[in-house]
Amino acid sequence: PSPNGSASRSAWATRTFGRSTVLRRVCRTASELKSTAPTEKARYAVKGEFSFDRPAGWRLSDAWGDSPPTLYLSRERAGAGKPVTVVLTRYDAGRPGWQPLEEAFAAEREWRGAKDAGSGSVAGRAARFSAVAGESGTAYVPAGRGRYYAFVYSAPPEAYAAHEPAFTALLSSLELEAQ
Question: What are the pLDDT digits (tens) for 149-174?
Fold first, then answer.
């Protein structure tokens, strides 16, 4: 049986289940603590970066400390299959995964068959849009100093149109801090 002290419990768990199993469970628990399932729209901010209205009923997982910095938003789903998601990633010049915005835009069109969905303004910045009809949409938003944000909305074809307004509302509510 597990001893009562937390340090002893940790040693007992490591002996019983092995270090990697304990670390995976601790990491998963920490990740779960960062996730929330809101019941209504709430403002979410990353200090020094941006803020936006998080869609009601969407879970947010914060991996902004990772490389590249990323936020994951997902809609609770009823069953198995592809989830409805919005992934926000910041790409910085010279960091893993970075390529110039125009090259990233061209690569998505070439590799995924995305179509150029035009340009527009997001948070007062000239943004580029691409889309794979009925599956995904991406907004590339320049952030200055050789970096940009990519907002990627993805959903199964049967759910795409129903959740696309949440993605549009998120982009409309985006405010970038001075870069």
Answer: 999 999 999 999 999 999 999 999 99
Do strands 147-154 and 115-122 pair parallel, antiparallel, or not at all (unpaired)?
unpaired
* The 3-state secondary structure of 51-99, one letter per residue: EEEECCCEEEEEECCCCCCEEEEEECCCCCCCCEEEEEEEEECCCCCCC
Residue 140 CA to residue 88 CA, distance in Å, equals 10
Pick the more confident residue, 141 or 12. 141
Query: Tokens in use for 67?
Result: 């490389």
Q: Which residues contact 159 (CB under 8 A, 6 or more apart)?
A: 84
Per-residue DSSP letter, 49: T
What is d(CA 93, CA 17) in angstroms, rounded to the nearest whole number? Answer: 42
- In order of 165, 176, 177, the CA distances from 172 in angstroms are 10, 12, 15
Determine if the pTM surpasses 0.85: no
Question: What is the C-alpha to C-alpha distance for residues 72 and 129, in angstroms, rounded to an integer?
Answer: 19
